[in-house]
Amino acid sequence: MSQLPPPLPPRTLVISPNWIGDAVMAQPLLALLRAAHPERPIDVLAPPQVAPVWRQMAEVDQVLETPFRHGPLQLRERWRYARELRRRGYAAAYVLPNTLKYALIPWLAGIPQRVGYKGESRYGLINVMHHDDVPPRPMVPFYAALARAPQTPLQPVPRPALQASAEQIAAACARTGLDPQRPLVAFAPGAEFGSAKRWPASHFAGLAQAIVAAHPQVQIALLGSPKDKDVCAEVVAGAGSAAAALYNLAGATSLAEAVALIARAGAVVSNDSGLLHIASALNRPVVAIYGPTDPGHAPPFSDVAASISLRLECAPCKQRECPLGHQDCMQKIAPQQVWQTLQPMLTPID
């Protein structure tokens, strides 16, 4: 008589935030969950634009891409999808977005333990309810706290970590035309949140000139989404004779390829954006430029990292556009100031 196969181990579901940087900063939560339940595979339900980041995390077993449109509740579609999730045998779900509609999915799927923050009054849908501190904690411990019972004092948290293989890096260099033998610096001049977070393109151009003058063999990759293509073109146009060393790759790479190129870079200069947090989680040397946002809320964690902020009286305003119309918090950070911070990081790249 044949024996029945052993039952599959229960799984853990993590429902991703909608922002790339937030997804990166949630990785320590997965590390804590894996340590607590090494027998449980971890799946992540993520929007398609964020899914590639989760695939670079060692703790993730499978990434499920959300089939829902942005905005509408789509209750019928969520109910149908929840039925599919029910068959995967989840023991617990960690709901990272604070919205009601994302909390519906594990409830409809009958997942017994549903962990998250109060958010949009999600009583019943979330049955292990956490409450954020006032003032809010930085993002990494904010997410990591979900690994333990509510009100538990948080122990030291591991820093975010991503991985990129040598094969992935080589393929990305080959497809974008970057020379794998020449030193590489990456710029991230965009910011999905709004223009207030962008260091001026002319300043990035001035920084590029200083880098190329000091390191003539360098390549500078300008990375970002298709929305950042124009601002990256402005950087190239303003770089003068240094423009030959610049590669405008905004919108020309997949997110996975951008991760690989950042992993290859000798240093990264970025606004407060998702690519900054990717660089930090890859442990690249980073110069992070902050204006309307708080550098203490989502700082880089690389071994070699510097945050530049003028800390003006009007900052951090956390607005998409400068409410005063001058954007002094970014305009007054001079290229020379950033170059002085970056220069020691570049000593080994030649």
TrEMBL record:
Keywords: Glycosyltransferase, Transferase. It is an enzyme of class 2 (transferase). Its EC number is 2.4.99.24. It holds the Pfam family Glyco_transf_9. It catalyses: an L-alpha-D-Hep-(1->5)-[alpha-Kdo-(2->4)]-alpha-Kdo-(2->6)-lipid A + ADP-L-glycero-beta-D-manno-heptose = an L-alpha-D-Hep-(1->3)-L-alpha-D-Hep-(1->5)-[alpha-Kdo-(2->4)]-alpha-Kdo-(2->6)-lipid A + ADP + H(+). The keyword Cell cycle does not apply. This is lipopolysaccharide heptosyltransferase II. It comes from Pseudoduganella aquatica. The gene is waaF.
